Amino acid sequence: MIDFIWLTLFLSGIVTAMFTGQMSHVANAILKGAESGVQLSIGLISAIALWLGLMKIAEQAGAVGWLSARLRPVARFLFPSVPPDHPAMGAILANMSANLLGIGNAATPLGLQAMRELQTLNPDKETASDAMCTLLAVNTASITLIPTTVIAMRMQYHSAHPTAVVGTTLIASAIGTVAAIALDRMYRAVDRRRRGRA
Amino acid sequence: MQQAISAISEWMLPLLVGVILLHGIVKRVPIYSAFVDGAKGGFGTAVRLIPHLIAMVVAVSVFRASGAMDLLVKCLHPVLNWLHIPAEVAPMGILRPISGQGSLAMMIDIFQKHGPDSWLGMLASTMQASSDTTLYILTVYFGSVGISRFRYALKVGLLSDFISVLASVFAVSLFSGMIHF
């Protein structure tokens, strides 16, 4: 998929340049693009390091544990098939908390742990269980309180209000997450009916 | 309304830093060493981004310099206009569920061209922050426990990604005062 998109960007560019006579610009863009790719990455070190440092403090101060306790009722509603005191529930809660705080590199390992625990509850080890599909829906929509990486990038590009995205992200990701949960429930119902018939 | 929002965003960063530090001290976290420990990861993260940024920035530069971007913007204009999606962010929206680092590179590209505080810059920021890399998450999560039948998970993920794009347009319009209640 990514191969296809990458190729399309190049090919459509080169073919268009044949017609528009911009080939010299394209040749220049290839070299300049690689150069700015490196500069961009190096420039990001400061902002990313700052945020990762701050989030580490929040993590050690127990922000994840605090949020998990708050999220417990939500998780019970989302994952009715998971027993409330099963280790899977704990991992799901920690994963959701890390997502909310924008600690992406902590969210993934916690999510994978949740998957391992859910697999122990799964009767068919090769087919995704209902709870797994819900966990994936919640993770891909990723409701976010503090979008750390994007704030870091905005600081790097001299935004006057780097944290202005907090509000818009909260609204957009809340809508996205509600949609994901609704779609998940909808497709689950359709799936059940189809299986029931077969 | 708009003044209040911009005042809040000015205060937000210093306040957030203050709250995180105070909360850390209260909870007896060695804040300085915790910060240094976390910040160490910044270098690695930025360096890991280099190959992705080179790949994407080169491709996007070619696409733009050739005039293909303008052509796409012109062709997609009626459809996207109807959905209130600016055509400039269309490639980013398509890439978002496939490659997080690719769409991040496109967001930076929009920052460079339009500025992070412009309407497009805010939209790109919100699109990047409000969704995750669906294909990556599905592959890694299911792959890690050996699930080969995803059932409806991919459909749900991609559909909600599309809704996230529309929701981002809505949220940014709301905050920039383009929608009044």
Could you list some keywords that capture this structure?
heterodimer, A: 198 residues, mainly alpha, B: 181 residues, 8 helices, globular, transmembrane (chain A), transmembrane helix (chain A), membrane (chain A)
Detailed description of the structure:
Chain B: InterPro entries: Gate_dom (IPR011642), SpmB (IPR052549). Chain B: It holds the Pfam family Gate. Chain B: Keywords: Membrane, Transmembrane, Transmembrane helix. Chain B: One of its GO terms (cellular component) is plasma membrane. Chain B: It comes from Alicyclobacillus hesperidum. The complex is a heterodimer of chains A (198) and B (181). By secondary structure, chain A is mainly α. Chain A has 2 domains: 43 residues, no CATH class; 136 residues, no CATH class. Helices cover 80% and strands 0% of the residues of chain A. Chain A contains 8 helices and no strands. In chain A, helix 5 packs antiparallel against helix 6 and helix 6 packs antiparallel against helix 8. The longest helix of chain A has 38 residues. Chain A is globular. The model of chain A has no long low-confidence stretch (mean pLDDT 87). Chain B is mainly alpha-helical and 181 residues long. Chain B has a domain of 124 residues. The longest helix of chain B has 35 residues. Chain B is globular, with a radius of gyration of 20 Å. The chains are: A mainly alpha (198), B mainly alpha (181). The interface between A and B is large, with 102 and 108 residues.
The chain pair forming the largest interface, with residue counts per chain, is: A-B, 102 and 108 residues
Rg of chain A, nearest Å: 22 Å
**Structural class assignment of chain B:** mainly alpha
User: Strand content of the residues of chain A, in percent?
Assistant: under 5%
Biggest pleated-sheet summary of chain B: none
Instruction: Give the strand tally of chain A.
Output: 0
Instruction: Compute the number of helices of chain A.
Output: 8
In the residues of chain A, how many domains can be counted?
A: 2
How far apart the termini of chain A lie comes to 33 Å
Q: Which oligomeric form is depicted?
A: heterodimer
Bulk shape of chain B: globular
Share of helix of chain A, binned: over 70%
> What percentage of residues of chain B falls in helices of 4 or more residues?
over 70%
Spatial extent as radius of gyration of chain B: 20 Å
Write down the secondary-structure element order of chain B. HHHHHHHH
List SSEs of chain A in N-to-C order.
HHHHHHHH
Number of helices of chain B: 8
Structural class assignment of chain A: mainly alpha
The shape of chain A is: globular
Transmembrane segments (chain A): 39-58, 131-152, 164-187
Keywords (chain A): Membrane, Transmembrane, Transmembrane helix
Protein name (chain A): Nucleoside recognition protein
InterPro entries (chain A): Gate_dom
